[in-house]
């Protein structure tokens, strides 16, 4: 059990030593292309095995769209090509010094990370965001369950990804969107402070340019928009998020809020069917919809002559020893109590590329004969039903 942990610590220690000796990460500053009263900077951390310079086309598109005097810093030359927690703090402070040196006056610094870059940027923001950043952007990445809840993140944070992302799938982002829905229901302005936005037709790789690493191509889906369109979509959302986070009153702020407000509605529409399906076995009643439906099928009493409830048992052991029951003692229609156990692929580290839907749903039901015997109800159809029939229904 403890071997991998020791190995991991050793790797981190080696990275820290090597990083402090070499100081490998290099900030490449792209100066602003316009003058404006609001000045800001966006530091971009690349995906694993992608050069920081591959984000140049996205960077110039963001500068073009943003109404701010916007500096961009591309962080490149990571150890072995992988952004990591040891080099990131050095990279961010080197970038900040480089900006000051080249004449940036404000401290409106935003940090974006793509894919593995985002995985590193999220916990960095949790730790140092309050002091060093005005906001964090996760491109094709997400805050894991090991991090803080969205509402407790110290600075504004945006999740931005494509619906054709095959690596960080929208089934995982759906959970984060659900967190956002809950905070929006309490305070509408959560849609500006912690937006979760899905762009249609965009895949995982499209934040960058140039060759895509084989590992990324392996999982990713085929994009349905051109790179130029993808940069536009990403830039519009990024610029709007920077503007709402800085909250300088004016027309720009109103426009930016309108963009994030419509993104929230559009993303809501994308997630609606997914979240409805998820609620079949993850809901506040802790009741499995499949289990109820299967039991109704099994009884062959399709017209409300019985009532069926279901309880999801989290522990497999409890499920194995549990028994379904029929209650004919209470007044009204007989009540059949069923039980379910929902099994997922174990994913304690909350890693991407794990399937998110259940591996299986096991249901304990009463047989047709037992229901008939206990309730004396006559079924309309007399043929037996099999598990295969139920699964097909
Ligand atoms: C911004 O203003 C400064 C000082 O007036 C000027 O030197 C610089 O060229 C301007 N930059 C742009 C992009 O217009
Ligand atoms: C909603 O959140 C915003 C930004 O975090 C805050 O300024 C505002 O006071 C909150 N409104 C309410 C009613 O809590
Ligand atoms: C977002 O837009 C809708 C519809 O236009 C509006 O009712 C709502 O108040 C807006 N929300 C915020 C937080 O501005
Ligand atoms: C980006 O925003 C601009 C200005 O609102 C708009 O004209 C353009 O269509 C947007 N681009 C995309 C790809 O949505
Ligand atoms: C039928 O019901 C009787 C009593 O109501 C019970 O003793 C018997 O075991 C039941 N048979 C089946 C197959 O459930
Ligand atoms: C449904 O209910 C009606 C009357 O309550 C009954 O005649 C019928 O046999 C029941 N069963 C089915 C399967 O329709
Ligand atoms: C249904 O299954 C029961 C129990 O296995 C069996 O006794 C009965 O004959 C079957 N009925 C039909 C119509 O196949």
UniProtKB/TrEMBL annotation:
The keyword Cytoplasm does not apply. One of its GO terms (molecular function) is hydrolase activity. The keyword NAD does not apply. Keywords: Signal. It holds the Pfam family Abhydrolase_5. Residues 85-208 form the Alpha/beta hydrolase fold-5 domain. Residues 1-24 form the signal peptide. InterPro entries: AB_hydrolase_5, AB_hydrolase_fold. This is Alpha/beta hydrolase fold-5 domain-containing protein.
């Amino acid at each position: 059990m403890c071997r991998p942990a020791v190995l991991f610590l050793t790797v981190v220690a080696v990275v820290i030593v090597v990083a402090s000796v070499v100081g490998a990460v290099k900030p490449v500053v792209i100066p602003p292309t316009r003058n404006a009263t609001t000045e800001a900077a966006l530091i971009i951390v690349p995906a694993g095995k992608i050069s920081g310079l591959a984000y140049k086309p996205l960077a110039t598109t963001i500068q073009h769209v943003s109404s701010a005097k916007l500096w961009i810093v591309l962080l490149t030359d990571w150890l072995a090509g992988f952004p990591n927690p040891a080099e990131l703090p050095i990279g961010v402070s080197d970038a900040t010094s480089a900006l000051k040196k080249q004449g940036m006056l404000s401290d409106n610094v935003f940090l974006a990370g793509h894919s593995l870059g985002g995985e590193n940027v999220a916990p960095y923001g949790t730790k140092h965001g309050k002091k060093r950043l005005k906001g964090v952007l996760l491109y094709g990445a997400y805050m894991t369950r090991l991090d803080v809840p969205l509402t407790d993140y110290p600075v504004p944070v945006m999740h931005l990804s494509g619906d054709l992302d095959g690596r960080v799938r929208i089934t995982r982002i759906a959970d984060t969107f659900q967190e956002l829905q809950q905070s929006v229901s309490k305070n509408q302005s959560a849609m500006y402070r912690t937006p979760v936005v899905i762009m249609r037709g965009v895949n995982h790789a499209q934040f960058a340019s140039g060759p895509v690493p084989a590992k990324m191509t392996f999982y990713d889906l085929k994009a349905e928009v051109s790179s130029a369109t993808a940069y536009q979509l990403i830039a519009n959302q990024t610029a709007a998020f920077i503007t709402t986070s800085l909250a300088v009153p004016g027309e720009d702020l109103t426009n930016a809020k309108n963009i994030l407000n419509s993104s929230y509605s559009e993303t809501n529409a994308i997630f609606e069917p997914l979240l409805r399906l998820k609620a079949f076995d993850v809901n506040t009643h802790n009741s499995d919809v499949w289990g109820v439906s299967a039991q109704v099928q099994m009884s062959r009493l399709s017209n409300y002559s019985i009532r069926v409830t279901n309880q999801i048992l989290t522990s497999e052991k409890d499920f194995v020893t549990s028994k379904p029951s029929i209650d004919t003692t209470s007044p009204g229609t007989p009540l059949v109590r069923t039980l379910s156990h929902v099994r997922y692929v174990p994913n304690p580290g909350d890693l991407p590329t794990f399937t998110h839907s259940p591996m299986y749903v096991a249901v304990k039901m009463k047989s047709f004969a037992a229901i008939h015997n206990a309730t004396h109800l006559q079924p309309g159809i007399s043929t037996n039903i099999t598990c295969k029939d139920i699964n097909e229904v």
